[in-house]
Amino acid sequence: MAETSLKSAHSATVSSVEGNDDAATERLLNEFVVSRDPRQRDELAKRYDRLVHWLAHKFSHRGAPIDDLIQMGRIGLLHALDHFDPLRGVSFRTYAVSTILGQIKHFFRDCTWIVRVPRHLQEIAASLPRVEESLCARLNRAPTVGEIAESIGVPEEEVVSAMELGRTYQPKSLDALMEFDDGERAQSFGDMLGRSDERMDAVVEFASLRTAMNGLDERKRQILHRRFYQQWSQTEVARELGISQMHVSRLEREALNQLRSLLTGEPHAAAERANLAGAGEFPIPTPAP
Question: How far is 31 from 49, CA to CA, in rounded Å?
Fold first, then answer.
């Protein structure tokens, strides 16, 4: 977790940059505290810019663009200059490090998640390592989710959600390869995703039409079956039924009008879809000429 990493690095970073600035910078800083002159502020920001770069590069391995980290660090430096009070007994360099790291921490918390996560879950996730370590030391075993939730004072569901945030922060690419135990085969995550079954889609798409077909009389149903399923011509259908080709054309037109009426006026039930799914036949878009 980004926030946990930043907190753990904070104390070490502060101690490593403790020290005195040169006399000219100290004098300029003291004058700025009194005057709040924007020109002195700009000069101090330039002199401490090296500190910003050093702190930003400590977190460049976390995947965020280094330019963004430097920009956030500079914002933190300006905040430190604007709010620094020497009467608090803390050196400016120490105060600036804390402010710069805080700004970078907010950047990781608010701007680097691939999926937007509620802030309270981020805060719970950031506190989990500390709470788990404390409970392990006290219980001499790994704590349960319920014990962690009780210690933090949140529902167990939120603790479980916070534990899953690591996958959300930097999810793997669908193009990333996944190797198997034999070491010879490799597939991308995208290749392992399920795909739509075209025949199942066809069942859903044409179930209502098959239901409407059952509402026609036997002769019209036979005509449509020959014409649309078996691609017979009207002449061939007429010869089989012993009627004229014009009569077949009229019956076909009536059947299609009836189907249109049935499809737009009668909802079909889920049970009918299930029964029709096993029929194995689906309408063909156009009949034979």
Answer: 19
Fold of 119-190: Arc Repressor Mutant, subunit A (1.10.10)
Topology of the domain covering 2-111? Four Helix Bundle (Hemerythrin (Met), subunit A) (1.20.120)
Convert the pLDDT of each residue in 104-121 to its tens digit: 988 987 777 767 778 888
List the CATH code of the domain at 198-277: 1.10.10.10
Give the integer Cα–Cα distance in Å for 154 and 158: 7
The per-residue pLDDT for range 164-214, each reduced to its tens digit, is: 876 666 666 777 777 666 666 667 777 777 777 777 777 777 787 888 888
| Fold matches, 2-111 and 119-190 | no
Given a contact cutoff of 8 angstroms between Cβ atoms, the answer to whether 209 and 259 are in contact is yes
User: Which amino acid belongs to residue 103?
Assistant: Q
Cα(257)–Cα(112) distance, integer angstroms: 58
What's 178's DSSP letter? E
Cα separations in angstroms, 153 against 43, 123, 124, 134, 157: 47, 13, 10, 15, 12
* 165 in Cβ contact with 117 (< 8 Å): yes
Could you tell me which of 259, 258, 246, 249 has the C-alpha nearest to residue 223?
249
Tell whether the torsion through CA atoms of 96, 98, 100 and 106 is positive or negative.
negative
Distance, CA of 127 to chain centre: 23
Residue 237: how many other CB atoms lie within 10 Å = 25
* Domain spans, the chain: 2-111, 119-190, 198-277
